[in-house]
TrEMBL record:
Keywords from the named record: FAD, Flavoprotein
All residue ranges annotated as the FAD-binding PCMH-type domain in the record: 1-172
Top-level taxon in the UniProt lineage: Bacteria
Source organism of the structure: Pseudoroseicyclus tamaricis
Pfam families documented for this protein: FAD_binding_4
Keyword Lipid metabolism applies: no
GO molecular function: catalytic activity; FAD binding
Protein name: FAD-binding protein
InterPro entries associated with the record: FAD-bd_PCMH, FAD-bd_PCMH-like_sf, FAD-bd_PCMH_sub2, FAD-linked_Oxase-like_C, Oxid_FAD_bind_N
Lineage: Bacteria, Pseudomonadati, Pseudomonadota, Alphaproteobacteria, Rhodobacterales
Amino acid sequence: MREIGSEEELAELLAGRNAPLSVGGGFTRGMTGEGERLSAAGLTGIRLYEPGALTLVAGAGTPLAEVEAALAAEGQRLAFEPMDHRGLLGTSGQPTIGGVVAGNVSGPRRVVAGAARDFCLGVRFVDGRGHVVKNGGRVMKNVTGYDLVKLMAGSRGRLGVITEVSLKVLPVPETEVTLAGEGGVPVLAAALGSPFEVTGAAVSGGRTLIRLEGLAESVAYRQGALAARLGGDWEVLEGEASAALWRGVRDVAPFHGKEGAVWRVAVRPGRAPELLEALGEEAVVDWGGGLVWLLVGGDGRAEEVRAAVERLGGHATLVRRGGVPAGVPALQPEPAGVARLTGGLTRAFDPRGIFAGAG
């Protein structure tokens, strides 16, 4: 595996490259492609951090742990709560901030805060021709190249190699609590539809989980009012006990160490119960029902999973192959119109197909 130490070195390499490359940072998220492995982990370091402006700029190879530690020292965080895939995929190494942005990796707080791409202010990357591209800025008011910034967040390395990201960060709230009980997706919907500012809504390990964050007095009031509205018996977990629960949801901890294929299914929240009834597999439900993780044994039931998801208007990504045959694509096949748009973009950014196997 070759490690790139600078943006200039990367640009020079890509300008003269004709064979495929598999680009990654820590190679922890399973987003590798075909060809020689190229690590961007050398593009590291926090280049700018202004706590007062809620802005951080870092090289794409900067370990996520380093970014989170710097933010925590100032009482701040990445509000989109990026997942750590290592426990689920059995990978090692260090997740990087560039990998987070490339995968648009977003956790339970997405229901209220938005996705990783919503916090991406700017990006630098090198495209398949070896051209260095810079879009966006370091403040929310700067919308130059805004659409291209959003495009790169979630592109999974198909359009170029991200070398630097600019992110908006937020303060850590004073208090968090979790209500743990029963009721499943309908209760999650009721909680999210309430006026009590729910920041997490999931079903994991057989428990229905609802998170509240903010100032202590506000959280105490909302906790009592929401529990009364929902009815039933609720266990209240506070502080680190609550945070540990949500790390487990974020990282799909109930599937760690278990055999089988893992599917990540995005579906309209109200259709999640139909999906679970149709497939009858072990599941972790997040985003109030909008995200369903399925653990499927045997051959992974690829045709059944994708047929059920398509019928419900969602899409399924194969995150861990398990027993699924090698010929089954990890990503949901795109509709013809979307495929034409995707093809046009990839030809524009990567005319020689260097990143063709990415993602």
